[in-house]
Amino acid sequence: MLSKFLQRFTLPLALSVALAAAPVMAQQSQGMQHDMPNTPASRAYMQSMENMNKAMMSQPMTGDADHDFASMMRLHHQAAVDMAKVEIQYGKDPEMKKMAEKVVADQSKEIKELSTWLERHPVQR
């Protein structure tokens, strides 16, 4: 009897919790952006993170750990490249700019490697 109860109410309960949490999460996100300095670099960093989060959340999981890792890491590395380009454009410290240039080179190489692997290993459904 308990099993039937759980089956009947688990999904609606989970959806209710998710819907109740959505406004809180939105407020937290807005609060982070509200407290953020309004500089071109800050806005660009935030945009790169938002782009990554949207892309990663919309990327369906295949159930294949290798494929999902490669897909997610490719998006993660692209965000690192995007953020490094912000440093290159707006940063002032030569050491940080040099590190950002290295990030662009290294992560771009890894993005290519991940893309090549994904092309060679299509999802088996």
From TrEMBL:
Residue span, DUF305 domain: 30-118
Please provide the record's keywords in A-Z order.
Answer: Signal
Signal is among the record's keywords: yes
Output the superkingdom of the source species: Bacteria
Residue ranges of coiled coil: none
Signal peptide positions are 1-26
Q: What is this protein called?
A: DUF305 domain-containing protein
